Structure formats: structure tokens, C-alpha cells
Input
Amino acid sequence: MQKEDISWYASWFDSPYYHILYKDRDDSEAADFMRKLTHHLELNTDAKILDLACGKGRHSRHLSTLGYDVTGVDLSEESIKFAKKFEKEHLRFAVHDMCLPYKENAFDAVFNLFTSFGYFEKEEDNVRTIKAIKNNLANNGLAVIDFLNVSYVASNLVKEESKTVEGVTFDISRVIKDGYIQKNISFTKDAKHHKYTEKVKALTLAHFKNYFEEAGLQLKHIFGDYHLNTFDSNTSKRLILIFGL
Output
């Protein structure tokens, strides 16, 4: 996946309407998750963390308040432009393609959070990303992928809904099709109709195990929610994977 590609995520994530639709994401939940996760990983207070596909940097900012040295990277120039407003000592942001290593052997932990994986059309790009994560890790480093649980999503799929945010009414439909969980978003603003599609590959635990094996990585722990409860393939909302060398 190259940055020049006109992919759904390249256009949608840079759209101001993406940030309007998702403006009310739960910061308190994100902060609590970061505290629990870093405690579980037993990271030293001077640990270097890479927040991969960081969006506007909300997890990076929470990690920074815990005292870690944090770098957030994302393909979206608009998201990084926003995140840079919060830069300070030990907290920085950059535009970067997560398929490629950012800085080899430089990080004690690499986090890929809030379903920021599975966007690619080509399976090889998923594997490339896992290998890039490996290359970013220092000796004894650990990585985390926080993904959705496909089985739970399939059983609880909200097929249609409308949501009004800042005067914009978003009509949202969802479907699982051709191996992807697909969300179609349409709305009218200033007499112009807009349509966007989010597509996330319906990756299961078995898919990730194959990626880790191909990359020479070991799966260490699996959790099913942001409280780090045990993963259950039927009832867990999340699939949180901790892995390393």
C-alpha cells in the first residue's frame, strides 16, 4: 500500500466529516484502557511507545500523561496536523505508512489500537504491516493489536441507523460482504450529497496467528475487552492480541 493510492481510508480519514461523525469517542475509556494495558505489559516509565495508525492521537496523549516517550504515526495528514497541536517533550507525531518500518529496533512497545488494521485489499499488505511492527520493536519489545471480534459483530450487527452530529445527519448501513465488514455512510451538507465507505477485513484469531507465524512472532496473550478480560469468541466485543519475539 503506497501513500499515493486513492483508497477509501485515504479520502475518508482526511475528510472533516470523518472527524465530525466520530467526535464523541470515549476518552475516559481510552485512558483507562491505556492504564490497564501498560500495567499488564509492565513497561518501564521511560519506555518508548509507537502508536501505529494513531488518528488524531487520543491514545498517544493518554500514554504521554502516564510518563512514556510516545511517537504517534498515521497516514492521514489531516489527523496528524491536528495531533501536532499537542506535541511536547516526549510526545511527537508524524505522517507514516504503517506497512513500512518507522524506526527499526527503537520501541519497547508498538500499539495498533481501535481497529486500525485490516483496511488493505491485498493480503500481503497485512503481512507487511506485521513484519514492520516486528522491525520497530527493540529487544524484548511487545506489540498490541486491538481489533474487533468478527463473531460478535456478526451476531450484533446494526444494519441501519441515523446519527446527527453538529447539524449533519449521517445515514449509516452495515453489511458483511466478500470477507469485509462494510459500513456505508451517506449525508447531505450544503446541498451536496456525500457517500463514503469503511471496509475492514473480517479477520479472525486464526488469521492473526498465521500472520504472526509468517513474521516469526509469538502470541503471548489474548483479551476480549478493554478491561482485559478473557477472550470468548462468541461474547467478547474485542480481540486484543499481545505478541512479540
